[in-house]
């Protein structure tokens, strides 16, 4: 009899626990409910702000941002994945308090690469707003709270705070346009362009020496920089690479077999034959690169 009573108690306890689990799993997520409520409140604040300031704003249904263009450039270049966007911005709360900005007076625009795995230091709201504008355009962007915003939840910008961005898009440049601008600025327009997009310019020739061949080990001196001049790698003593085996980036494999022992060249390359959309620390995603290369030997 005692065994039956114990079993009944155990069965009741298990049932009670199961019922509690069901109730918990079916209960609404209080965090999600709070986010929804705050989002609606933000929408009301933004709509009231638009009315009070007599703005003509259009809501983007995908991002939830409200865009009021103050300078419209219909023929401007729209940013797509891989493009470099340079911009100025001022971020304010709706009460007018400035929270953040670029160094507009010093003419130091912000820079972001569209589609990069990380948007860098800027907020998701600003990043999304930039993608809705074209080169040369200016706009007021009103943004409700974004839970992915990495700069909210502080004294200047408490969590769940809607914001205003005043944005100027300085330029939108594809990788190809960035490379063309660099070649023109550096006087390298005579560089050969190959089917891959590689630019190759021999800067020191040794026509009587042997061409580098696939499968050889070449000793190379080199310096690598970004288009802005920042150096990310160099080897002045020379290091050995296996040619044409994928041991180096595709641009190197292509360039080295155009060279002879003792020759020097400058190559400029798109990220498709460099480090691609992921980049490689400290090389950003979608970054065109410049290398100065010297073939010391090839065996």
From TrEMBL:
Cross-referenced Gene3D superfamilies, in alphabetical order?
A: 3.10.50.40
- The domain of life is Bacteria
The chain positions of domain PPIase FKBP-type read: 82-173, 215-299
Q: Which Pfam families match?
A: FKBP_C (PF00254)
EC number(s) given by UniProt: 5.2.1.8
One GO molecular function term of this record is: peptidyl-prolyl cis-trans isomerase activity
Catalytic reaction equation(s): [protein]-peptidylproline (omega=180) = [protein]-peptidylproline (omega=0)
Q: Give the signal peptide, or none.
A: 1-27
Task: Please give the SUPFAM superfamilies that the UniProt record associates with this protein.
Answer: FKBP-like
Q: Which UniProt keywords apply?
A: Isomerase, Rotamase, Signal
Regarding protein family, the annotation reads: Belongs to the FKBP-type PPIase family.
According to UniProt, the name of this protein is Peptidyl-prolyl cis-trans isomerase
């Amino acid at each position: 009899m005692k065994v039956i009573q114990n079993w009944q108690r155990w069965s009741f306890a298990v049932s009670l626990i199961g019922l509690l689990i069901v109730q918990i799993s079916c209960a609404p997520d209080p965090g999600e409910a709070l986010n929804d409520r705050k989002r609606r409140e933000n929408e009301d604040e933004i709509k009231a702000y638009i009315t009070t300031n007599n703005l003509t704003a259009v809501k983007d249904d995908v991002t939830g941002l409200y865009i009021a263009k103050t300078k419209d450039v219909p023929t401007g270049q729209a940013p797509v994945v891989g493009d470099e966007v340079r911009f100025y911005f001022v971020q304010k709360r709706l009460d007018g308090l400035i929270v953040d900005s670029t160094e507009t007076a010093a003419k130091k625009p912000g820079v972001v690469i569209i589609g990069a795995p990380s948007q860098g230091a800027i907020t998701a709201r600003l990043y999304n707003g930039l993608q809705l504008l074209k080169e040369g355009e200016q706009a007021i962007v009103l943004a409700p709270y974004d839970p992915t915003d990495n700069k909210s939840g502080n004294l200047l910008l408490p969590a769940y705070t809607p914001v205003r961005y005043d944005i100027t898009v300085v330029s939108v440049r594809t990788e190809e346009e960035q490379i063309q601008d660099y070649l023109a600025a550096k006087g390298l327009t005579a560089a050969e362009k190959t089917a891959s997009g590689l630019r190759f310019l021999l800067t020191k020739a040794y026509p009587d020496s042997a061409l580098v061949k696939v499968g050889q080990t070449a000793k190379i001196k080199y310096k690598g920089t970004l288009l802005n001049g920042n150096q990310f790698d160099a080897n002045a003593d020379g290091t050995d690479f296996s040619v044409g085996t994928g041991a180096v980036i595709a641009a190197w494999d292509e360039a080295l077999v155009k060279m002879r022992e003792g020759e020097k060249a400058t190559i400029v390359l798109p990220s498709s034959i460099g480090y691609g959309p992921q980049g490689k620390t400290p090389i950003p995603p979608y970054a065109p690169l410049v290398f100065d290369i010297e073939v010391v030997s090839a065996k």
